[in-house]
Amino acid sequence: MVAKQGWRLIQFPNSLVSKVLRARYFRSCSFLDAKPGSNPSFIWRSILWGRQVIQKGARWRIGNGSNILVYKENWIPRPDTFKPISPLTLPIDTTVGEVMDDENNWDVAKLNQHFMQEDTEAILKIPLPRSQKVDEMLWHYDKHGEYSVRSEYQIALKLKAPDEPSSSGSNSKRWKVVWSMELPEKMKIFMWRAARNLLPTAENLWKRKCLKDPICQGCNREVETVRHALLDCKAARKIWYHATSSVQIPNAQNQDILEFIYEVWSTWGKTEAEQAIAFCWAVWFARNKRIFEGKKSDPRASAAKAESLLEAYHRARKPDASHIHNVKRIVQKKWEPPPGNFLKVNVDAGINNRDQVAGLGAVIKDPSGKIVAADTKQVPLREGVSFAEAEAMEWGLQVAKELSLSALIMETDCKEVVDLLNNTKGSRIGISWVISDIQEQRRDFKEVKFRHIPRTCNTCAHSLTKLAVGANTSAVWLDHIPTEILNVLNSVV
Predict the structure, then answer these.
(1) From 51, 81, 366, 401, which residue has the greatest number of CB atoms within 10 Å?
(2) What is the rounded end-to-end Cα distance, in angstroms, of the chain?
(3) Which domain of life is it from (predicted)?
(4) What is the C-alpha separation between 131 and 201, in angstroms, rounded?
């Protein structure tokens, strides 16, 4: 709780408590740099004790970068340091704003000159607002950048015992999600062992003195932790690349497998989460065959095995044909035309982890279902899938503006983006810059509605994202839509 009070000093600098403590203890510096001072009170010493947790989990959301020191502040979304690992080639008091150009974009030439490639790649993924905004502190270990005592407690536990996830307490909700999935029991048990760090990885065997070193035999570069073996190793990435889902593997090294599965479930749904667990299982199976049998599995075959195993399991669980008449038939939802005075814009985003790009797709249809426009665009992959989905929404809105449309229904299968646009949720992370731009562009229309729909209602836009991922150009088709594009769209209607 004392850490929460420290966070409030950062977020509400004009509150009475902040003004009193600033006047007494940190008049000439920020709270994060404040010293105990002479004869500090018990309250102030307690707040300073909680500040160490804040410093491990807080980082800056970059607006104009004028308040952020390049080498001293937390600003790169890469735990645990959040700072550049490059040697100092700039003055120690250089601000982030000084490595940005006049249009509030990253100065790529300056980044390449003063930072290592790893730093440059991480920095270029940080989204920036189109116009200069005030820099703001956010909590890195929350999906929306919001601080909470629970998330602070979790990061404190990770700092103390990072290899000991629990299947009780605060993780009970996540475990309920895993146990409720329609998966073979061996996959559920495998996921439990992975989350409990019970898999015989090189690191775990090295700790038990069974191996001479903990280095991964798949890449021979990094320590083989559970996360590395299942998600980050180049051998694992090759299998994940062939997944038919749009699941993105996050770069957060602190995120354990259970958190990853829960994030997939909350962002994309149950089906994608089941496939993610199946792929983890297939990656581990291929890894064992390579190490113990000396057989190198084909990544495509491993991916197909995971998907076919899931499909066979679901097929086996379906009721027998003789009892189908007793089961209520479930009808999948399909795309519905808009009311007479509206046009409907369906948008979607797909990603390519290997090339670090995202493909955006949008389809505009009138009340009769006729395609008014179709468009695709490829953009760099930044914060993640939700960010790309927000960019797709903005791209669809821009195309609608060029067509001088007035009343729109904007639909996407990403619930997070819709909640942010409808102000049912807030966010401090980079996606908020795109959301604010969309809200500003919304004023150019007579009426715009944002709706969340299931994937089955968004198949046309989804098919365009596959084209966008493979094409490094933007394309907008209006009156004369190419036959091959129409064939793609009509084939999924």
Answers:
(1) 51
(2) 53
(3) Eukaryota
(4) 47
- Tokens 């500040």 correspond to what residue? 51
Distance of CA 309 to the CA centre of its chain: 27
What is the Cα–Cα distance from 201 to 211, expressed in whole angstroms? 10
Residue 368 sits in which domain range? 343-491
Pairwise pLDDT comparison (323 vs 226), residue with the higher score: 226
Give the C-alpha separation, 253 to 82, whole Å.
Answer: 12
What count of other Cβ atoms lies within 10 Å of the Cβ of residue 74?
A: 23
Give the pLDDT score at 246.
60
Phi (first) and psi of residue 186, to 5 degrees: -65, -30
The CA–CA distances, whole Å, from 185 to 143, 277, 280, 284 equal: 30, 12, 14, 16
- Which of the 8 DSSP states describes residue 320? P
Q: Are residues 133 and 213 in the same domain?
A: no
Instruction: Say whether both 119 and 192 belong to one domain.
Output: no
> Do 94 and 197 sit in the same domain of this protein?
no
Would you say residue 329 has pLDDT above 70?
no
Q: Which bin fits 213, alpha (ψ -120 to 50), beta or left (φ > 0)? A: beta
Rounded CA separation 435/423 (Å): 10
Cα–Cα distance, 434 to 390 (Å, whole number):
7
Identify the CA nearest to 236 among candidates 251, 223, 249. Answer: 249
Tokens representing 133 are: 């905004």
pTM score: 0.64
Buried b / exposed e along 205-235 (16+ C-beta atoms within 10 A):
ebeeeebeebbbebeeebebbbbbbbbbbeb
Q: DSSP of 190-202, one letter per residue? A: HHHHHHTT-S--H
C-alpha of 421 from chain center: 17
Last residue of a domain, one of 117, 150, 183: 150
**Most confident of the ranges 17-26, 142-151, 329-338, 482-491:** 17-26
Stretch 463-492: mean pLDDT, rounded? 76
